Amino acid sequence: MSNAMTKKITMQQIADHLGVSKFVVSKALSGKGGVSESTKERVIQAASQLGYFAQKNAYMKNVRRDVPTAGAGGNKQSVLVLMPNIRFQTRDSLYWGKILDGISARLEEIGLGMVIISEQSIDHFLHILNPNGILGLIGVGEISTSLLLEVHRIGLPMVLVDHEDPLIPSDTIFVNNYDCMSRLTKHLIGIGHKRMNFIGNARYSRSFHDRWIAFRSVLEENQLQTDMKEEWLFQLEGIQDFQEQIKLWAIRKQRAGQLPTAVLCANDMIAIDAVNAFNELGLAVPHDISVTGFDNIEDAYRTKPALTTVNVPKEAMGKKAVEQLLLRIDKKQEPLEKILILGEVIYRESITRLVQKQHS
Q: 2-49: what fold?
């Protein structure tokens, strides 16, 4: 048994598993192209399931890296920060920008440089990347599997912030999304809310998914709205301008006499759009409907009324990513970690205790 466990997984085994040639597997895993995107995905998935990527240095170039000492002389070594400019992942973002601030502050403290890449194309990425002088990589937000595979193949140690890839193993840093949303949902039940909805695309990211699952679990535990289970989630489409979608949804709910007394939004940006949509319909927040967000971006307390939300320690996540990367460079063989930074519910004016009306 132990023999089988320690056997190396080869490209030939992946090829046999999929019924393709070893040449196809080699091309798909080399990142050099020559195979279709769908074939590549199948190969990556099979390789992951068979444990190919989990093997230490099974197919990676082994690049020696030493953890730097502060103020070390010679050429300054750098950490690569990869944040593909997709959706709203930019330096100007009130969320992602703060994570970057944390990364850069910590790197500065220990005397390391930072190279930010917002490239999505693998070819360009490889062109930019010269592994010499690059200690490792911190990925911020959503990054494609193909790009992460390339980083993994080169053998760069990496840590991902607020993202994980089901196929490419790495250390990850998240806020404790599930616990925080669970606490927030329970609080609303505690102040009298029984008809609530979650607003956001549950498939958008791992964090959104965890927040939705927490909301759903609390409703199930408390046996609320069991007749309306499919209505618990209002799944937003696209990535911006949610105000109109929320407004049309609220009109439908009002007409059906099913307007919730509270909505819990997947993040603050969605919550702010929800407040604006409700205002347009003449619904006062929180008097007619309570609204919560998540992240505690700066706009959350500038909104009228100020938004009840969850504070995600964004800079702390960035700093922790740097520390975890240095630890990973130093101890390559240690098990990978998923690190949760604790968030905190912040109660502001956008929610209110529900006074039971006669007809409820």
A: 434 Repressor (Amino-terminal Domain) (1.10.260)
Q: Which residue spans of the chain are classified as CATH 1.10.260?
A: 2-49
The verdict on whether omega for the bond into residue 166 sits within 30 degrees of 0, i.e. cis, is no
Q: Which residues pair with 79 in a beta bridge?
A: 114, 136
Cα(61)–Cα(154) distance, integer angstroms: 5
Cβ pair 65, 78 in contact under 8 A: no
Question: What CATH number has the domain spanning 78-175+315-342?
Answer: 3.40.50.2300
**pTM passes above 0.85:** no
Place of tokens 């409820």: 360
Which of these, 70, 68, 83, 112, lies nearest to 329 by C-alpha position? 68
Q: What is the pLDDT of residue 7?
A: 66
Q: Give the model confidence (pLDDT) of 69-101 as tens digits.
A: 444 444 578 999 998 876 667 777 889 999 999
Confidence band, pLDDT 50/70/90 cuts, at residue 127: low
Rg (CA), the chain: 23
